[in-house]
């Protein structure tokens, strides 16, 4: 993860987004990559249109380089000092450091003044041999290497490896995860290599496999079939090395394997295959080498090894068990086993010795190896405990066997069954543990399996026609390849559509269930599913650069990162094993001395053993029952499952630190634009304060704003395109001296005028007077929850642009749910106070901070933290990055900027605000699971170790044999992993989690019921005749308590609403009424007023010109040329009808050309309306040169059944209102862009299915058939659905209210009533029927 302090300093000094270079010019989705440091970008200050010469210091800073030299011959610090002084005397040396131990010198220098050769010659002049090893820029000085490590058993192993890696020179940070069996190492490649890191791991006694070196290159392995002779090997190597973009080639002749490291921007695997096959003149065939080194393969191999070992151990252990504990009680067999061979040595003892030896030394060899590795590095792990325990039992048994063979009267008992059974049970436990651990990483495996195995590669000719298609391995796709995706097929790589249109299901990547429409130019993600049409896609990011690979890497990195709570287990593990060994020895010593001095009766000692053997058994039991693994696995397994579940639901959590912080969050700071709102602002109104043509006005504004990345700037530029002659490729005047004032606006010089576009505070700050009229317009705009942008041209306020950014669906519900979770919500925005307050009031946020700059947002976060709050920041833009870094938990919107995503701890892939709830709820449940793991792991050791030590033996004669203790130890690790795996059943919360509270209440009631009946029975408060003869008062109380617990049914309450909503929305969909969730259903059933738009809703929406009346002497053709030239720029249905009618008078009806219209202005909602009342037609008044010239009558017929619908609504006591402009009331029925504000503002927005995309998106209910009758269907269906929900709640609550008291015994008075005996059957019948 990016260092927060470093990122803060970069953002603070950057002064805006210009300080960051984008990763690529080609389209790509904004999905989080692995954390990287932001690269510096050289900047040149521009004043007055001329470049000012940069200062020498600035130039030198930008050109600084780092070089590493190998220096041979240094013997002591004096040699290093002489080399360092000689280098520093050279001009252009910034700094130099000499490492005498590793014979290296690192030099930071300015290439404008000194070269690498000069530095090397200077070192040689001092008397030492020097060679340039490596030269890298500063941002390449740290790489992240990943290693897979085999053989770790507990946290002691991982701590040992972590310490060994940290001690390697050049390693900045090392993390070793026991659960994933991987190590992540941040290292300086100029000081240490990945191979040296692997050697450091192997020196600790564990096997290391390189996953990635962290270098910014791709690597592929190819298998070569054919005569791979020395000549061919040399030719292939030389041919591949000659290719541009190839960094390294390694050939293994024995395996016929060629490993190639390359840059994907310049070449790819298909080129390598072609080169290899052409080199061999057709005799060589190349293909991708089968993957056998993946994590899944190694996990499967480990599972198989433990399974085989366990089976082999059973082959020997079962006979040992039978001869020692079963056959001794079978006549005939007992005599054979008790037959003496030499002196007191019996046949049974020799058989057990022979059978247990392979188990101890061959099958149990792994424990000896683990013990040796641990002790060699001065640490102790679980293997040490197992080896000591089994060896104590085994070698004591050998002692008894030898004594029996040499003594004529020695009577002893062997423990061969203890050692062999102990190893068998531990192997079984390890097998179950690795099996369960494999399931914790299933989320990553599912992500990796999303990519298709094959893809269809197509080729175009120069004219754009497809000339060939062929199926290839998807791993052979290269950048800029064109891939064909068939309906139902998976997209093989990231890219953009160049031909075709379809809907793509992206749920497997983003969690968003609704298919997304894709057309030419739209971005697609690899691994997603094409629903219907055929698509041709140009690949932009392949291999490790793809969004899927980046998500997998981020989840893997998150699972590697340790949560702070893990440090608790790490601290315990350092002392746990030595403490257990000490306790074991103390236990043995105490029992041995107690037996030696007869401190307990001889009757306590079992007949088959003596006091020494009893003490030995207690000591071994203590040693093997202790389980450090359970403690070590408590946190990482839960974090693995939690982050995996989050990724599958579109919430990427960057490690345990983020999870731990998120579960403590009690205050969330929301950005407004793009977070609470959709982030797609649109210009809704323009008010000019000076006499100016609107087209010229927007030319000035767009010229300044086109250089900004702010969403409001993009909205203004998009709107300005409508006034350009070429809307697709507009050309704006050149803007000079551009300055982006973060959080306020922009300033530039366009032509010879200064243009300032920004908020009111910016104008005040730079001394531009704001007239009273402008202030009134701004106040009115803010009252309507719109943002007013002030435009100054030539230091005079020229106009105000009003921009609207609708709230995200569900924003109000999210804030309400956070309140119920006792999380305070605060909104911080750079927008004006009026707009901010209007938005906050709409969503239910009480605390608002407006007109805040990025650094002020960060300061506010710090203030909240100072008041003992755990703060989360939710944002999406560059200006949110400082606050995201400063917050305890930074939550970034997935559709936001890359910098915001990199700065955040949690990324919401779907950009849905509801996922804030999911992230917090998932983190809370994960840490609840971690707490349960620790309670179990610690409780197990605290309770079981004393029992194994024999604290209960003096009172109960109960003791744990060593083999049972070993089985308990194995079971404890498995139970912790299984407890973590329960997180896989996580479901995101829909409403406040009543289920959890109801469970707590039911358990309390059950306990209270038992306690009352128990105390009443204890103090004889009811006749003894009430107690059935088959039980006592305690059992009677227990039955009542259990009955209360099992009869309660929280499920019915939980299912009351969702089942009815599911059926209701499903029925609606089948009838062409799409209802967007339970909120829409609940609001619709309360509707008592419907506002209906006229055009396209009550009417057909297809107006036609029916008559034209000229008031001046004029040719009708000329009249319509003027009218059509003006109306052709408008999107209004009436305007389109006029233009269509005007074509009838054109000489070329198909390709008509209208005169050019300038200074076009569309006045929303004010197209000239003079109704011809008697004929229900619209009269359009035409004025040419300030004179009334004519009237056009347009008819728009009513939809069939419209009068019946209005009549039926009246009978349902629903008032109907018709409007043709915006109206902010209860339910709105509309179809156009101009209806969108009303659709959003109404309690229920109903859109016509044939309407505009914006209207459909804004609505709560969509009528697919566009029939007006479906308004009735929607309201009636919602009323019936909520009537069903009410009935469900009455039944669910009534069942529990009646059933629980009965189960608690309120009707119980005597056994003759039959209530008691009939109750259990009644409970289950009621529970099942509910």
Automatic annotation (TrEMBL):
<keyword id="KW-0472">Membrane</keyword>
<dbReference type="GO" id="GO:0005507">
    <property type="term" value="F:copper ion binding"/>
</dbReference>
<feature type="region of interest" description="Disordered">
    <location>
        <begin position="18"/>
        <end position="42"/>
    </location>
</feature>
<keyword id="KW-0406">Ion transport</keyword>
<feature type="domain" description="HMA">
    <location>
        <begin position="218"/>
        <end position="284"/>
    </location>
</feature>
<keyword id="KW-0186">Copper</keyword>
<dbReference type="InterPro" id="IPR023299">
    <property type="entry name" value="ATPase_P-typ_cyto_dom_N"/>
</dbReference>
<feature type="transmembrane region" description="Helical">
    <location>
        <begin position="575"/>
        <end position="594"/>
    </location>
</feature>
<keyword id="KW-0677">Repeat</keyword>
<dbReference type="InterPro" id="IPR006121">
    <property type="entry name" value="HMA_dom"/>
</dbReference>
<dbReference type="InterPro" id="IPR023298">
    <property type="entry name" value="ATPase_P-typ_TM_dom_sf"/>
</dbReference>
<dbReference type="Pfam" id="PF00122">
    <property type="entry name" value="E1-E2_ATPase"/>
</dbReference>
<feature type="transmembrane region" description="Helical">
    <location>
        <begin position="1036"/>
        <end position="1056"/>
    </location>
</feature>
<feature type="transmembrane region" description="Helical">
    <location>
        <begin position="934"/>
        <end position="956"/>
    </location>
</feature>
<feature type="transmembrane region" description="Helical">
    <location>
        <begin position="962"/>
        <end position="983"/>
    </location>
</feature>
<keyword id="KW-0479">Metal-binding</keyword>
<keyword id="KW-0812">Transmembrane</keyword>
<dbReference type="GO" id="GO:0016020">
    <property type="term" value="C:membrane"/>
</dbReference>
<dbReference type="GO" id="GO:0005524">
    <property type="term" value="F:ATP binding"/>
</dbReference>
<keyword id="KW-1133">Transmembrane helix</keyword>
<feature type="domain" description="HMA">
    <location>
        <begin position="65"/>
        <end position="131"/>
    </location>
</feature>
<keyword id="KW-0813">Transport</keyword>
<dbReference type="Pfam" id="PF00702">
    <property type="entry name" value="Hydrolase"/>
</dbReference>
<dbReference type="InterPro" id="IPR017969">
    <property type="entry name" value="Heavy-metal-associated_CS"/>
</dbReference>
<protein>
    <recommendedName>
        <fullName>P-type Cu(+) transporter</fullName>
        <ecNumber>7.2.2.8</ecNumber>
    </recommendedName>
</protein>
<feature type="transmembrane region" description="Helical">
    <location>
        <begin position="614"/>
        <end position="634"/>
    </location>
</feature>
<dbReference type="InterPro" id="IPR001757">
    <property type="entry name" value="P_typ_ATPase"/>
</dbReference>
<dbReference type="InterPro" id="IPR023214">
    <property type="entry name" value="HAD_sf"/>
</dbReference>
<dbReference type="Pfam" id="PF00403">
    <property type="entry name" value="HMA"/>
</dbReference>
<feature type="transmembrane region" description="Helical">
    <location>
        <begin position="380"/>
        <end position="399"/>
    </location>
</feature>
<dbReference type="InterPro" id="IPR059000">
    <property type="entry name" value="ATPase_P-type_domA"/>
</dbReference>
<dbReference type="GO" id="GO:0016887">
    <property type="term" value="F:ATP hydrolysis activity"/>
</dbReference>
<dbReference type="InterPro" id="IPR008250">
    <property type="entry name" value="ATPase_P-typ_transduc_dom_A_sf"/>
</dbReference>
<dbReference type="InterPro" id="IPR044492">
    <property type="entry name" value="P_typ_ATPase_HD_dom"/>
</dbReference>
<dbReference type="InterPro" id="IPR006122">
    <property type="entry name" value="HMA_Cu_ion-bd"/>
</dbReference>
<dbReference type="InterPro" id="IPR036163">
    <property type="entry name" value="HMA_dom_sf"/>
</dbReference>
<comment type="similarity">
    <text>Belongs to the cation transport ATPase (P-type) (TC 3.A.3) family. Type IB subfamily.</text>
</comment>
<dbReference type="InterPro" id="IPR036412">
    <property type="entry name" value="HAD-like_sf"/>
</dbReference>
<feature type="transmembrane region" description="Helical">
    <location>
        <begin position="350"/>
        <end position="368"/>
    </location>
</feature>
<keyword id="KW-0067">ATP-binding</keyword>
<dbReference type="GO" id="GO:0140581">
    <property type="term" value="F:P-type monovalent copper transporter activity"/>
</dbReference>
<keyword id="KW-0547">Nucleotide-binding</keyword>
């Amino acid at each position: 993860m990016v260092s927060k302090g470093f990122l803060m300093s970069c953002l603070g000094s950057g002064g805006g987004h210009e300080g960051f270079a984008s990763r690529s010019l080609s389209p790509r989705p904004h999905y989080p990559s692995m954390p990287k440091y932001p690269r510096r970008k050289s900047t040149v200050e521009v004043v007055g249109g001329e470049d000012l010469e940069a200062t020498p210091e600035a130039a030198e800073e930008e050109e600084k380089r780092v070089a590493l030299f190998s220096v041979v011959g240094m013997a002591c610090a004096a040699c290093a000092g002489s080399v360092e002084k000689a280098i520093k005397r050279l001009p252009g040396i910034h700094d130099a450091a000499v490492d005498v131990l590793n014979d290296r010198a690192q030099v930071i220098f300015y290439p404008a003044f000194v070269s690498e050769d000069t530095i090397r010659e200077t070192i040689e002049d001092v008397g030492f041999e020097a060679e340039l090893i490596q030269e890298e820029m500063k941002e390449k000085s740290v790489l992240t290497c990943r290693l897979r490590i085999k053989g770790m058993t507990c946290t002691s192993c991982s701590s040992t490896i972590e310490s060994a890696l940290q001690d390697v020179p050049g390693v900045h940070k090392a993390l070793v995860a026991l659960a994933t069996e991987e190590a992540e190492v941040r290292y300086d490649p100029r000081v240490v290599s990945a191979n040296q890191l692997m050697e450091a791991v192997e020196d600790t006694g564990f096997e290391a496999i390189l996953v990635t070196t962290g270098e910014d290159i791709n690597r592929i392995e190819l298998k070569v079939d054919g005569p791979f002779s020395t000549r061919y090997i040399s030719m292939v190597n030389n041919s591949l090395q000659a290719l541009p973009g190839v960094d390294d080639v390694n050939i293994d002749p024995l395996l016929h394997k060629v490993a190639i490291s390359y840059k994907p921007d310049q070449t790819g695997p298909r080129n390598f295959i072609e080169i290899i096959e052409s080199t061999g003149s057709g005799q060589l065939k190349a293909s991708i080498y089968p993957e056998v080194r993946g994590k899944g393969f190694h996990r499967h191999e480990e599972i198989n090894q433990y399974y085989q070992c366990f089976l082999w151990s059973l082959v020997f252990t079962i006979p040992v068990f039978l001869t020692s504990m079963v056959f001794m009680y079978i006549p005939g067999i007992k005599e054979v086993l008790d037959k003496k061979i030499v002196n007191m040595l019996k046949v049974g003892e020799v058989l057990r010795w022979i059978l247990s030896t392979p188990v101890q030394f061959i099958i149990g060899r792994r424990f000896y190896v683990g013990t040796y590795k641990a002790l060699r590095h001065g640490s102790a792990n679980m293997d040490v405990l197992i080896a000591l325990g089994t060896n104590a039992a085994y070698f004591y048994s050998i002692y008894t066997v030898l004594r029996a063979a040499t003594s004529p009267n020695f009577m002893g008992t062997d423990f061969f069954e203890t050692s062999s059974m102990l190893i068998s049970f531990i192997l079984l436990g390890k097998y179950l543990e690795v099996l369960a651990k494999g399931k914790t990483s299933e989320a990553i495996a599912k992500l990796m399996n999303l990519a298709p195995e094959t893809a269809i590669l197509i080729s175009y000719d120069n004219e754009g026609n497809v000339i060939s298609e062929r199926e290839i391995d998807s791993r052979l796709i290269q950048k800029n390849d064109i891939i064909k995706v068939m309906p139902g097929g998976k997209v093989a790589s990231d890219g953009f559509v160049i031909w075709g249109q379809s809907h793509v299901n992206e749920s497997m990547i983003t969690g968003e269930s609704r298919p997304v429409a894709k057309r030419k130019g739209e971005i697609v993600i690899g691994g997603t599913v094409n629903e219907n049409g055929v698509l041709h896609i140009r690949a932009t990011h392949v291999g490790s650069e793809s969004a899927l690979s980046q998500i997998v890497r981020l989840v893997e990195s998150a699972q590697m990162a340790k949560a702070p709570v893990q440090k608790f287990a790490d601290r315990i593990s350092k002392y746990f094993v030595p403490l257990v060994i000490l306790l074991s020895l103390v236990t043995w010593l105490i029992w041995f001395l107690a037996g030696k001095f007869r401190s307990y009766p001889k009757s306590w000692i079992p007949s088959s053993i003596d006091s020494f053997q009893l003490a030995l058994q207690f000591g071994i039991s203590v040693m093997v029952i202790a389980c450090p693994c359970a403690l070590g696995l408590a946190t990482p397994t839960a974090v693995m499952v939690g982050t995996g579940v989050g990724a599958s639901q579109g919430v990427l959590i960057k490690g345990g630190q983020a999870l731990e912080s998120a579960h403590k969050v009690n205050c969330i700071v929301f950005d407004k634009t793009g977070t609470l709102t959709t982030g797609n602002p649109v210009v809704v109104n323009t008010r000019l304060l000076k006499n100016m043509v609107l087209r010229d006005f927007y030319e000035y504004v767009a010229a300044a704003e086109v250089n900004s990345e702010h969403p409001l700037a993009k909205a203004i530029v998009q709107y300005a395109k409508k006034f350009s002659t070429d809307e697709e490729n507009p050309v704006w005047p050149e803007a000079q001296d551009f300055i982006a004032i973060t959080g306020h606006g922009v300033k530039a010089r366009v032509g010879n005028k200064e243009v300032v576009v920004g908020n009111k505070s910016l104008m005040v700050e730079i001394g531009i007077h704001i007239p009273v009229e402008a202030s009134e317009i701004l106040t009115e705009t803010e009252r309507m929850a719109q943002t007013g942008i002030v435009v100054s041209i030539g230091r005079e306020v020229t106009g105000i642009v009003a921009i609207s950014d609708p709230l995200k669906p569900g924003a109000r519900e999210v804030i309400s749910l956070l309140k119920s979770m006792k999380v305070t919500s605060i909104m911080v925005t750079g927008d004006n106070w009026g707009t901010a307050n209007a938005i906050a009031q709409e969503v239910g946020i009480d605390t608002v901070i407006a007109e805040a700059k990025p650094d002020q947002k960060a300061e506010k976060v710090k203030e909240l933290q100072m008041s003992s709050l755990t703060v989360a920041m939710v944002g999406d833009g560059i200006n949110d990055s400082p606050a995201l870094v400063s917050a305890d938990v930074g939550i970034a919107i997935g559709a936001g900027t890359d910098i915001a995503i990199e700065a955040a701890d949690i990324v919401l892939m779907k950009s849905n605000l509801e996922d804030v709830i999911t992230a917090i709820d998932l983190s809370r449940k994960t840490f609840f699971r971690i707490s349960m793991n620790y309670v179990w792991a610690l409780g197990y050791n605290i309770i079981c170790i004393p029992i194994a030590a024999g604290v209960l033996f003096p009172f109960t004669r109960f003791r744990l044999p060593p083999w049972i203790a070993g089985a308990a130890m194995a079971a404890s690790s498995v139970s912790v992993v299984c407890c973590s795996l329960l997180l896989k059943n996580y479901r995101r919360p829909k409403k406040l989690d009543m289920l959890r509270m109801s469970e707590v209440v039911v358990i309390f009631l059950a306990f209270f019921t038992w306690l009352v009946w128990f105390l009443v029975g204890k103090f004889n408060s009811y006749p003894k005749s009430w107690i059935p003869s088959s039980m006592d008062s305690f059992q009677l109380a227990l039955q009542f308590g259990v009955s209360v617990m099992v009869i309660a049914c929280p499920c019915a309450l939980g299912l009351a609403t969702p089942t009815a909503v599911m059926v209701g929305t499903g029925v609606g969909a089948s009838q062409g009424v799409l209802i967007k969730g339970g909120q829409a259903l609940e609001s619709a059933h309360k509707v008592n007023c419907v506002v209906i738009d006229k055009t396209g809703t009550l009417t057909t929406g297809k107006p036609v010109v029916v008559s034209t009346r000229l008031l001046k002497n004029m040719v009708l053709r000329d009249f319509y040329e003027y009218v059509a030239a003006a109306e052709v720029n408008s999107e209004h249905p009436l305007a389109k009808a006029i233009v269509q009618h005007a074509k009838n008078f054109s000489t070329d009806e198909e390709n008509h050309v209208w005169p050019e219209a300038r200074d076009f202005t569309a006045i929303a909602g004010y197209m000239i309306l003079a109704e011809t009342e008697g004929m229900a037609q619209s009269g359009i008044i035409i004025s040419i040169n300030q004179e009334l010239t004519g009237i056009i009558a347009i008819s728009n017929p009513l939809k069939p059944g419209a009068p019946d619908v209005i009549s039926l609504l009246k009978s349902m006591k629903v008032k109907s209102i018709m409007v043709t402009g915006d109206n902010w009331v209860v339910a709105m029925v509309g179809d156009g862009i101009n209806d969108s504000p009303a659709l959003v503002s109404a309690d229920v927005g109903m859109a016509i299915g044939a309407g505009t995309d914006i209207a459909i998106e804004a609505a709560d209910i969509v009528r697919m058939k566009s029939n007006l009758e479906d308004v009735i269907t929607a309201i009636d269906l919602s009323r019936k659905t909520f009537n069903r929900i009410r009935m469900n709640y009455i039944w669910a609550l009534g069942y529990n209210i009646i059933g629980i008291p009965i189960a608690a015994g309120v009707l119980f008075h005597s056994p003759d009533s039959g209530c008691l005996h009939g109750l259990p059957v009644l409970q289950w019948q009621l529970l099942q029927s509910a």
